[in-house]
## 1
Amino acid sequence: MRSIPTDLLRAFVTIIDLRGYTRAGEQLGRTQPAISLQMKKLQDLLGVSLFAKEGGTQLTEQGELVAGYARQILALNDEMMLKLSSRESAGKLRLGIPNDYADHFLPRLMASLARDGADLTFDVVCDISHNLLEGMRKGQYDIVVAMTPDGPSEGAFMTWKEQLTWVDATGRGDGLAGSQEKGPLRIVCYPEGCLYRRNMLTALQRDGRSFEIVYTSPSLSGLEAAVGAGFGMTVLARRIVPSALRVVEPAAHLPRLADVVVGIYVSADRKRSAVARSFAARFADMFVASDSGVLAG
C-alpha cells in the first residue's frame, strides 16, 4: 500500500482552486517547475493521469475522484495536527497580522475553529508589516501575515499578490477623486511604514500629483470613519474594502498603484512549528478561497 505525501495533495488542490500552476506556485512559495514536478510525482505514485493534458488544469475522471479525497485528507490532517500539537505547545499561538486583514479574515477563521472544536489559545498583535516581520526574526511570533513591496521575505510559508485600489466615500457622485482633480488630494492613511501608504504616496509623487495627508490612524475602523465621512481618500487591498466605502475604478486623474506581495511566515522553532504550520495551512486555505472573491464562511 503506497502512502501519498500531503504536500503533493495540497499542491494538487491549490492548482485546482487557483486554476494554474504558476499561481499555485506563488501561493505555496515554489516555482512553477517545482509544482510541475510535484504533480508528476503524485501521478506516478497514484498510477493515473490527473489532468486532461500536461500542464493543464482540467481534471480527468480519476482527477475528480482524487480531488475529493485530497480535500478530506488535508482537512483531517490539519485538524489532527492542530489538536495534537496544541497540547504540546506551551502557551498561546502568537499571531502577528496587519489590522485590516485581522478585521476581515480573523472572525471567519475563529468561527471555523470554534465549529471544529480546535483546542487553541491565541495572542494576536496587529501592526504594520515591517514591524511584524522584524518581530518574527526576533522570535516574538509563531505566525505572521505580512506585506512586502517587491517579493516575499525569506522563509515564506505561502505567498500571493494583492491588488490595491483607491477608496473613497459612497454616495458622493464622482467622489473626492473627481472633485479634487485640480487641487491637492486629501489623503487618509495608516502611519509611516505601511505599504499602502508608501505605494499611494509613491504613485502620487511619480505622477506629479499634489496631496495633503489630513488623517492618520493605525486602525482600519479609524480610516473607514474618516473616508466614510468624506474627509479624504485612501488606498486599501481591493478584496478587503469595507462595504461602507467605494472602490474608485481606474481613472486618468488617479495614478496607477503597484501590487503588493502578501506572505504567511511560520516560526522555525521546532517546539512550536508543528501547530503553527497546521494553523498556517488552514489560514492559507481561507486566503486561497477568498482570492476568487468567494470568502470562506
## 2
Amino acid sequence: MKYAVLAPVAAGVTADPQWIGRYARHAEACGFESISVVEHTVVAAGYTSTYPYDASGRMDLADDLDIPDPLDLLAFLAGCTSRIGLATGVLVLPNHHPVVLAKRAATVDRLSGGRLRLTVGMGWMREEVEACGADFATRGRRADEQIQVMRKLWADTAPHGADHEGEFFRFKNAMSYPKPARAGGVPIHIGGHSRAAARRAGRHGDGIQPLGVTGEALRDLLKLMREEAELAGRDPDALEVTLGHSLARITPEKAQRLAELGADRIVLQPTPTRDLERALEELSACAQRLGLTAP
C-alpha cells in the first residue's frame, strides 16, 4: 500500500513557505509516498453551484482561503524535498489550456526527477470554470481531448513535432520541450464520483481517485473503469486506485479493508491546524501506526 498525505489546505497554511516546506520535508522523512495539493483557481463568493461531497452543498473552505496554484506549489515543494511524490488532488482540468498545462507539468516532472502525478477532475463550481473561459456543459468532452493533447505533446515527436485536430484544440508541428522525466509522460489519474469519471479513467487515465464514493457504488465504479479499459484495448490491472481516509484515524486494519476494495494508495487528510508542531506530530504518529519510517 502507498500512503499519501493531503497538504492541509483547510488550515490556511499552504501559502506559508516555511510552514508547508517543513511539513513536506517531515512527510518525506516519515516515509509517506507522496504529498497531494488541491486547486481552485478562483472561488466565486456566494457561489450557487452545489458541492457534491457534502449534504450541505457547500465545501468547508472559506471563499477567501489561500489556495496556491497547485503546480507552482508542487514546484516549490520539489525544491524543498528530494524523494516524496508530488501530486495534484485534484487539478480542475477545464481551467487549463492543455498545451500550456503540458509544458508546465513536464517542467515540474523533469526538474523533480519524475515525481509528479496529475489527478484531474472536471470541476463542480460552474462559476469557477466559466471564469477561466471554458463552457461548463462541454467540459467532459473537452477534458478527454485535453488528455489526448498532453500525451501527444509529451511523446517523442522529433523532428516534425505533434499534430492535433480536434473539437476544441488544433495545432501542427508543435515541439514541446522539455519532455517529462518518464518515457510514458506524467501519470494522469481521474478524480470524481461519476460513471463518466470511471469511463474516462478506463479509456484515458492511469488510475482513478473516487471522491465521496463508498460501498457498492465504489465497487461499481471500479468495475466500470476496468470494463472500459478492456474495451479500449488497455490493461485494467495497470490502473491504480487511490482512496481516501483520515490521517488521524487510519490504522493498518482500516487500510487492509481499503486494499480489499481495490486501493493501491490511500490519501490521508490531516486535521486542520495552524500549529505546525501539532501537525508534524500527527504525521509521525500516523507513520508509526502504519509501520512507515518515522523520525
## 3
Amino acid sequence: MNIIKFLDEFTTDNLLEGKSSRRDIFGTLGSLSKKAALAAVPFGLATMPTKTYAQSMTADPVGALQLALTLEYLEDEFYDLALQSGVLPTGRPETVYMQISKHEQAHVDFLIAGLEGAGVTPVEKPTFDFTVNGMFDPFNDNGIGQDTAYAQLLALAQAFEDTGVRAYKGQAGNLLGSPFLTAALQIHSVEARHASEIRRLRGLKGWITNNERGIGMPEATQAVYEGEENVTQGGVDVTTLGSGSPFSMGASTEAYDEPLSGDDAVAIASLFIVD
C-alpha cells in the first residue's frame, strides 16, 4: 500500500465506524531484530530527501512503532474487558469508555497496517494480566464489589493513558524524518484527551501536578509520573518566569508534560504482560 495514501485514509472517520474482529491467538511480546529494522527502512523512507534519510538511519522508527503497538494492544484489550465486565456505571462513564475503546482499536489497526505496509511483521499481541497476579480486580471477577472494581478500572485507565501520552512523546525523536511522525503526533494528542477525560471521571484536574499520581492511585503506578516534576524547559528554569511574581512549582509542572523513555514505558507495560 502507498504510505501517503494510507496516511490520508487514516485521517478519515472510516476506522471509527466499528471494532475490527479480534485475533484468536495471543502471542508473547516479541522484539524486532536489527536486520528486520534495516530491511524496513527502504520501504518507509525511500522517498525522503537524502539528508533526512541519512539522519533517520540513526533512529529506530520501526522500534518506536512496535512499542506504540504494544501499548495500544494493552489499552485496546483493557477497554474491551472493561465494557464487558458490567462494572462500568451507565451514562457518561460507559460512554467515555466506549468511545476510547473505538479509538484504541483504530490505533491498533493503523499501526499494524503501517508496519505491514513497510514490509515489517508487527509484534504479536501479548497475553495481559490486568490483575497483576491478583493485586487488582478491576473486572469484579472475585466479587470485591462494583464500586471498588470501578475505582480500579479508573485508576488503571489513568495509568495507561498517562503512560501512553508520555511514551508517544518519548518516541518522537525516533520518528523524525519518517512518514509516521505526523500520524504519531495525531495519536499522541488523542491519547492526551483520553488521559484528561479519565482523570476528570476520577474527580481530578485534567493535567499532572509535579510527579503526583493523584488520590486513590496505587503506589505501583508511581513510575508513570516520575520525572514530571522537572521545571527546566529549553535550558530555562520556568519557575523564575512570570511578570511580577515567579510561577509556583505546581503551576510550572502543570504547564509542561515530560517524555517517557522507551525502557521506562516497557517496564511499566511489562507489569501487565504475562511472560
## 4
Amino acid sequence: MSPLVAPDRLVFVGGLHRSGTTALGRLLGDHPEISGLQGTGVREDEGQHLQTMYQPAVAYGGPGRFAHDPGAQLGPVTDAGERARIGEGLIRSWMPYWDLESRLLLEKSPPNLVMGRFLQSVFPGSALVVIFRHPVVVALSSKKWQRGTSLSSLVEHWFVAHDALLRDVADLERVHVLRYEDLVADTDAALAPLTSFLGLSSPLVNSGQVRSTYSDRYRSAWSAMSGPLSGRERRRIVSRFDDAARRYGYDIEDVDARHDWSLPAP
C-alpha cells in the first residue's frame, strides 16, 4: 500500500476495448470530485501505458485476445513488501497526471476488468467500476485490430474476460458494474447507483460522452451477415454463445434486446 495517496481515493475503470471505458472514464473525470489522468501523451490516457509494474494488454495480444492469456488475469499480491513496492511504483507513475486536490483519483484501462483482485490487494479500499457492452458489438468493433481473428473467437474472448470477473467477485471488496446499453437507454437511471457507490455529493452527468448512435454500424453489420459464409458464422455464434449471453442479460441474435441482470452477490 502506497503512503503517497490514500488507497480508498482510487477508482479503477475497466471493461473490454470498445465497451465504453473511455466514455465512462471521461464522464467520471468531468465530475468536480474526480480527477482522471490527463495530458499523459499515451493512448486514451490509460494508466496501463504509463507504468512498469505490470504488463499492458498489448503484451498479451491486445484487444480481443489479452484475456485468453492467464498472465493478464492478475491475482492478489500476498507479500506485504511487494504490495508496497508495486503500489508506490504505480502511484508515482500516475501522480503527475492527476489533480491531487480532487477527492477521488481515477485510472482507466481495459484490462482492469480482469485485474480487480490485484488492484484491490495493492490498494485496499479502492473501487473497481466495470462497463459491459454487447458481446457481438464489442467483437465487431474490435475486428479492425485483429483482422486475422475470427468473429467467433472475438466473441469467445468477451466471455472469457467477463467470466473471469464474475469468478473474482467473491474476493472483491468494492465493485460496481453497469451496461453500456443501459447507460444509453436511461442515463440518469444508470448513473444514479454509480453516484451512490462512489459517495459523490452531486449526480454524475452525461454531457455527450455516451451517445446512442455509436452502435448503429455494428448493428447493421450483424444484420447484414446473411451470405453463404457470413451467415454460417453468424449461426455458429448464436448457437454457441446465446445461452451464455443470457446470463449477462443479453441476446446474441438480437443486439437490441436486454433482460434484467445484476452482478451476482459474492
